[in-house]
Amino acid sequence: MYRIHIEHHGIIQVDLGSDGVQIDHETKQVDLIHISENRYHLLMNNRSFNAEILRFNRRNKEIELRLNGNNFKMQIEDDFDLLLEKMGIERNAAEKISEVLAPMPGLVLDVRVKEGQSVEEGEPLLVLEAMKMENVIKSPCKAVIEAIPIQIQDKIDKDQILIRFAE
């Protein structure tokens, strides 16, 4: 089961079953055809829809979709999210990220943040050179920088701590 929050349109509940798709407890006959990378054609109860995925954030379960020319922003909650809610646990608290680790060994070329600075998810933190390629390491979440235990020109190992976030 999924609970989908559609910005400015409310919440729907979706169940995928062998007999069709249930939307808010009503069974719908759905046929989905993949047209190209992010484009789909959807037939639902004899109605035709053109769908394009504009943006998808798997980690945060957010999707921006264009459906017949209209854009919709959605937040998806799956069984895991609903179980956490039932138990009184906030999903973000369960996934609190406290540090950024080096994805590979390399050389620190640039540090683009300072201790105490607030960063948004996806904001560049530093540049790491590995295998003669520059890799921009981005923030995995919205956070405040607590410590930067590396410096420009440091040689670092895989899984070495690059950035620590404040609790």
Description:
The longest helix has 8 residues, at 79-86. The mean pLDDT is 88. The radius of gyration is 21 Å and the shape is elongated. The protein has a 9-stranded antiparallel beta sheet. Strand 13 (124-130) and strand 14 (133-138) form a beta hairpin. With 167 residues, the protein is mainly beta. It has 2 helices and 17 strands.
Q: Give start-end ranges of low-pLDDT stretches.
A: none
Please tally the β strands and state the result: 17
Task: Summarize model confidence as the mean pLDDT.
Answer: 88
The proportion of residues forming helix, as a percent range, comes to under 10%
- List the total number of helices: 2
Radius of gyration over all CA atoms, rounded: 21 Å
Portion of residues in beta strands equals over 45%
Spatial order of the strands forming the largest sheet: 4-3-2-1-9-8-7-6-5
Succession of helices and strands: EEEEEEEEEHHEEEEEEEE
The CA-CA distance between the termini, in Å, is 32 Å
What structural class is derived from the secondary structure elements?
Answer: mainly beta
Shape: elongated
Short précis:
By secondary structure, the chain is mainly beta.
Provide the descriptors you would attach to this structure in a database record:
mainly beta; nine-stranded antiparallel β-sheet; 167 residues; 2 helices; single chain
How is the secondary structure organized here?
Elements: E1 2-6, E2 10-17, E3 20-23, E4 26-28, E5 30-36, E6 39-44, E7 47-57, E8 62-67, E9 70-77, H1 79-86, H2 91-94, E10 99-101, E11 106-111, E12 118-119, E13 124-130, E14 133-138, E15 143-147, E16 155-156, E17 161-165
Antiparallel strand pairs: 1-2, 1-9, 2-3, 3-4, 5-6, 6-7, 7-8, 8-9, 10-17, 11-13, 11-16, 12-15, 13-14, 15-17
